[in-house]
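Input.
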Amino acid sequence: MLLAGHIKPWRDCAPGERLDTRNGLAACPAHDVAFDVGLLTVRDTLEIVLTQRLARFVKDDELTRRYYGRPPMSGVLLFPEGAHRPLPKYLDWHRRHVFADRP
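Output.
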């Protein structure tokens, strides 16, 4: 079961960004929510990055590790052949405006 969501939320998008297929990701519900609230983000290299707080919970809590540890979570986003990868400008926006560990 996957949810499709915007990287840069609809409310913050210019009209041309709202329907841009490269402004979206599909994830399971747990990872979708973690992304939306800034507990994890994605680098331009497609590497998945956890906040320091979530990373501590992964280390110390078995249930959290089952969802956000490696495995089962991959270290990078995986795409089927021919899939549109997200544009770096949207990932950068997420890191600057949503990710909880932003500088």
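The mean pLDDT is 95.
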